[in-house]
Write a structure and sequence with these properties.
With 401 residues, the protein is α/β, with parallel strands linked by helices. The chain has 14 helices and 11 strands. The strands form 2 sheets. A 6-stranded parallel sheet has the order 1-6-5-2-4-3, with helices on both faces. A hairpin with a 3-residue loop joins strand 8 (318-323) and strand 9 (327-332). Mean pLDDT is 81; it is low at 389-401.
Length: 401
Amino acid sequence: PLTATPIPRTLQLSLSGLRGLSVIETPPQDRKPVQTALVERDEPMLAAALKRELDRGGQVFWVHNRVQGLERVVEFVQKLAPEARVGMAHGQMPERGLEDVMHRFWHKELDVLVTTAIIESGLDFPNVNTLIVDQAQMFGLGQLYQLRGRVGRSERQAYAYFVVSSLDSLPESSRRRLRIILDMDYLGAGFKVAMEDLRLRGAGNILGEVQSGNIAKVGLDLFLEMLEEEVRKVRGEDVPQRTEPELGFVFKAHIPGEYVPDAKERLGYYRALSSAGDEMARREITAELRDRFGPLPEPVVNFLAVLELKEILATLQVERADLYVGRAVLSWGDDVAVVSPERLIDWVGERQGQARLLPPGRLEIRWPDHLEAARGLDYLGNELQSLATESSGAESITDGN
């Protein structure tokens, strides 16, 4: 099992079944979410944040990403809060000196600890309930989440300030990391943060020491799907026989630019809808589209219907489907184990005038021309639901024709 927030490679191994995974989302009693803010460097605001914590008898972590220049940060903090007792800690200090500083901070002989990311894991200071991360754009997503977890470890309300020099000049990668950590400020968000970290950084290599990488060319969801299938084969489990059918259609089925103007958002919705695990997941994404952009236009409705149909075609091992107005032609390859020729012939016979076999290994299905594209695809999907046979060792359709 995993604990805390897993690194991308460890999480990937768990999602693929090579390691166990357990998720605890129930927070301790009376624990409150840490109020998180992304702010530009503003001395009066930072001084007020320090004063508020010190006035209620609390302590502060001030995190800076570099050992070099940490002394200047101590001077800056002392300037902001002249009455505060400020200490410094980093990994290059002598062991005894570091131990002495942490001992004094634990016993509340210091009010503010200026430190590097050395504190990001394993520390429990219930009296520390304000965190200021200086130059937050220099930290990774997992680091930011772990750092925020150092505060709010009691019943007191805690605060985390991620400080940057300029919000306007932030690189896009840093902006994405900070947006995720701001959005996921609720209790029990660690697993979702780890998933986003996996998407941002890649999964690295299963074997070897490399823990980060780039799988953008394949896509995380497809990669995990392929890996899961191979793991199940190695374990001797039954792997559902599916294909990735090629679709051709004459009607509009897409997300129009005038409906979702931002190209990146459109791509994100394409990816989310195409990789959704089931109908319920697609419905949630569809509801979000309606919420944000209004009623679904016809091309989006058609696109959703195509995705639903594609799931059924993949289960039936259809190699290609050509969709027209009022009819569809399905083609199978040479090796089909899901649909037996006998079952197919019986199925066509039950639908005289609506379905017929075409050589080699093709099936034509018709429906009323007046039906709109999405309704026609729904009709087709409902008809095909009954076609799958329970026999897993059936001969191929082409052999039967």
